[in-house]
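Note to self: user wants both folds in one dump. Writing first protein now.
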Amino acid sequence: MRTLRPGQRAELYVVDVATNERRLVHESSTLLFEAPNWTGDWLIVNGDGNLYRIPVDGGDLEQLELGGVPAVNNDHVVSPDGDTVYVSAEDGHLYAVPLAGGSPRKVSNDRGPEFHHYLHGISPDGRTLAYIGLENRADGNRITNVYTIPAAGGADVQVTDDEYADDGSEYGPDGRWIYFNSERASTTPGHAQLFRIAGDELEQLTFDERVNWFPHPAPDGSMVAYVSFPPGTLGHPEDIDDVRVRLLPSGGGSPRDLATLFGGQGTMNVPSWSPDSTRLAYVAYPVD
């Protein structure tokens, strides 16, 4: 589990996408929390293998009961009705946890010890989860592809089938497109850009020198938020300077910076839009 460095803080912010005005919701110098989900008037973050919730207007972190689910990581989503949080656990599987309490349910299928599920999205109707399947192959290669699975459990559907580095798969508000980041358009290792896929249709969304990860379509479909790393970054590391939270108009055009910070991994890995598409939540990790 990640921990804070000496002199480091985790800072949870909410930012207005129209004005760029941000508000500090919570900070900690003891708990490294990550990846805010927004559900109703609450934000949900993970830290130290647990899940916590906090009012959007600020307050204390309240630990959520996971009912015996193994330690969770920063890949988690909330159902559209706000009743269930779906989590990726360190045993490589996906679980459904009732937010009001009750017994959790394992969602993912056993695909062998070398296959791990990393959850990033849920369809607008709450019926289907989008995840990244990571396969550690015998030849030493780590292969990632986009998959879906019914939220109630069932057969997996493989959406991409190749050896490009893919991550961050998330449904758009129309339920048709799945947005993700990939290195499929570059010959430079680590140079991820944003894409979306629907069946046999594939569209590239960003075309710049920065390394772009974790696309989050706004609920109203007007724009896509994402995390942008400096050129030459490999993967989505922690504790990087000049990390930017950016907005890309859905109808095309140039991205604009919403925030610049010290962070990266954990800043905005999962859906973090307010339901009305006016605000975003993210985490920065400054060091004194």
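First done. Writing the second protein, which came from a different request thread.
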Amino acid sequence: MKTAQKHLLRRYLLLCAGLVIMAFGVAFSIKGGLGTSPISSLPYVLSLFTPFTVGTATIAMHVTLILLQILLLRRQYEPIQLIQLPVALVFGSLTDGAVWAIQNITVQSYAARWLLCAVGILLVGVGVSFEVTAGVVTLAGEGMVLAVCRAFGTPFPKTKVGFDVTLVLIASVLSLLFLHRLEGVREGTVAAAILVGMVAKQVNRPMQRFSRRFLEC
């Protein structure tokens, strides 16, 4: 029993590390100013014309996604997935903390912006790999994709693309309506959509060895 609890604690610690890394990835993407990842585009845009911070808007979006999962799956919804709620609260708070931590970084050239964008993509990819390796709970965004797949029998890759595109479209429309310009969705968003998954896959290889050595021993 104690061994099982130790394994579970290690997995949650790995998840927390992944959330910290992802939060800084989001912060660096925002600082780069070339667009955030699809999942962060909507909270970022909301933060620009509401009293919400990026982290608070992230929490609000995750809560909405959790409610949508419940409405979609109804009796098929597994209560254990409500763990997504405290994870969302932690991730939103960490995101605000990361944005504050790097607030003094200044960028001027386009190349420097791409450098920060690349750092953001790398960190988000590594954080996603940590989350997947921990294997204890999914974030609400991925949970929503899985819920749609379960409810409608759609394949995960296509559903994930559709989900990301939907978030980007909503963020773009809100940006144009309330800010009268496009914010949060730029070339960096496209790069993140393509590269985050690739980074995560590359990191998954050493993380699998780490899992066998430290999480399952």
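Dump finished. Worth passing along: The chain has eight helices and no strands.
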